[in-house]
Amino acid sequence: MIGVSICNLEESTVRSQFKKAKLLKGKKVHWYDMDSREHEKSISLINGLKLHHVSISAEPLLKTMRPERARRKCLETLLPILEIQYGVTHLFMESRNVKQDHNELRFIQTLHAKQFVRALRYELLPGGSDSRLWLPDQILGASEGCESERLVVNDLERFSISL
């Protein structure tokens, strides 16, 4: 599953909101490091920012499908939606490891070459360096949460693809 928050706010604005809510304890805010009270506080904060969010999940038809292939299929579907439907021109995603980052950038270049996306710029950043990267982590955590704690994220459009 991949999540995106369409955010035109400055990084410092988002970071200060998380600090003010006392949700930033280390380098970054991570859903699975928080308790249910903090989850509610985080989603309330995010809903207050009045942003649009998009998530996409891939349901593999074969159990043998590798997660990286499922991720590429999600990106192949998601990036044109972001560019065409939402007018996104610059996408920041959290860096993972050197090999995965290299493969992902190469894949994005292929999508450009095949005209899946035309002008979308794509940048990988360390998770703690830009607080706007924390938003999708929070919305995905809320939407995947256990039934007793499922929180409502405003303006979340969900897509699902079968592979």
Q: Structural class, from helix and strand content?
A: alpha/beta
Total domains: 1
Mean pLDDT: 90
Low-confidence stretches: none
Percent of sequence in beta strands:
15-25%
The overall strand count is 5
Helix-strand pattern: EHHEHEHEHE
> Order of strands side by side in the largest beta sheet?
1-2-5
The gyration radius over C-alpha positions equals 16 Å
What is the number of helical segments per DSSP (H or I, 4+ residues)?
5
Shape field = globular
Q: What is the terminal separation in angstroms?
A: 13 Å
Main sheet: strands, sense, barrel: 3 strands, mixed
Helix share, percent: 40-55%
Q: Which features does this protein show?
A:
163 residues, alpha/beta, 3-stranded mixed beta sheet, two-stranded parallel ribbon, globular
Walk me through this protein's architecture.
The protein has one domain. 43% of the residues lie in helices and 18% in strands. The chain has five helices and five strands. The protein has helices at 11-20, 36-49, 67-85, 98-113, 134-144; strands at 2-6, 52-59, 90-94, 121-125, 156-162. Strand 3, helix 4 and strand 4 form a beta-alpha-beta unit. Helix 2 crosses helix 5 (134-144). The chain starts with a strand and ends with a strand. The mean pLDDT is 90.
